[in-house]
Amino acid sequence: MEKENMPPGDDFMVRCRKLGNPVPFSYCRIENRGSPCSKIIDCWYDYFMVEDFLRQEFEPDEWERIFNQPPKPKVLSLIELIEEAKKRKTEEQ
What we know:
Structural class: mainly alpha
Number of strands: 2
Largest sheet: 2 strands, antiparallel
Strand order of the largest sheet: 1-2
Strand content: 5-15%
Number of helices: 5
């Protein structure tokens, strides 16, 4: 059976390796502060030609920035998320 070139609709979900919940492809495309999740290819390759699809969506320099960078340490990611939440809370007041 040949894989599709296009992602499935939002009614089709896979288990998110970060959250542990089912999520649609549309979420995975913006999970990383508006950029695709670093695990998007690993999670979706069984369902459609995700790498081919994403390579058409991004310029080579964007691809490099999104997919070929080493992941941040978990603690650093958590600190950044906490700082962003504090900033949002301050802006709301």
